[in-house]
Design brief:
The protein is mainly alpha-helical. Helices cover 43% and strands 10% of the residues. It has a two-stranded antiparallel ribbon. A hairpin with a 5-residue loop joins strand 1 (68-72) and strand 2.
Length: 99
């Protein structure tokens, strides 16, 4: 039986790797259902009792301007940005979404 003591460091290693859960599991010989389960347990453990766990990350932005941007993924997910953003900031924002 796997424990938090064993699996939380694995989840942290996966998060630092920038690999998808599937890629990480394949590279480390984990069954593909293990990492999503423990990632959820890890997120829940890291969330204060008075907050609900969320997969959203709050991002600080500069004051908006007239220019808007929209990015749409093939699965239908849409990201709308108000105002211009630098390429470096956009790369940092979308980095975890890259395969």
């Amino acid at each position: 039986m796997r424990t938090e003591t064993e699996m939380f460091p694995v989840v942290e290693d996966w998060m630092a790797s920038r690999l998808t859960q599937k890629e990480y599991s394949l590279q480390h010989g984990l069954p593909q259902h293990i990492l999503p389960y423990w990632a959820g347990r890890y997120r829940k453990a890291q969330t204060p009792d008075n907050e609900s766990p969320s997969r959203f990350v709050q991002i600080a932005t500069a004051a908006p301007s007239a220019a808007d941007m929209e990015i749409q993924w093939p699965n239908g997910t849409v990201l709308r940005l108000q105002g211009p953003v630098s390429a470096a900031w956009l790369k940092e924002l979308l980095g975890p979404c890259s395969p």
